[in-house]
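Quick question: what would this complex look like in 3D?
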Amino acid sequence: DAKTTQPNSMESNEEEPVHLPCNHSTISGTDYIHWYRQLPSQGPEYVIHGLTSNVNNRMASLAIAEDRKSSTLILHRATLRDAAVYYCILDMYSGGGADGLTFGKGTHLIIQP
Amino acid sequence: SQTIHQWPATLVQPVGSPLSLECTVEGTSNPNLYWYRQAAGRGLQLLFYSVGIGQISSEVPQNLSASRPQDRQFILSSKKLLLSDSGFYLCAWSGLAGGLTNEQFFGPGTRLTVL
């Protein structure tokens, strides 16, 4: 699986939007971009995924660059409960595939009240 | 709805002792099953995955093994634990559950400390 690069940590204020960047310059044409997050002492949970077009769901939005070499996870109005480690993952399967996901170190998002 | 269970939630074991962690999934059939480990301060590492009963693929060589005796049961074992086996063990499943996405769903995890 291609590698992703994320900032180690980011800080934001409650009720403000948060933009979490991810670089994936070696992405292949069949790689989907997945985002998961992990709250303290819990297992990761799925946030969103996309291939080429921007995606929206109830949790977040995913903005994908036209050349697909980068993407941004957008939390429109951060709450304290959004404080977590956010992982950007590339995988050739839309659902993570039968052979599992490759997690990096992710971005530790800190939300200030 | 689908649920995933792991037990025990926490475990403290001496070096050299055996290990058995269990994971079960409810509400779905023929899921893909996964074992991940997260060592302190590190990311998640995929250990094993299974696409069916008795089918196990190992991602990294180690003193751990996995088995899938039933469709929705996944077991992680070791005959002799090492200090380096300490960590947070997560079971996950994926499969078409009637939705548009096929994401992985993680269990609550087992925190293992080997002393």
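Answer marked as accepted. DSSP finds no helices and nine strands in chain A.
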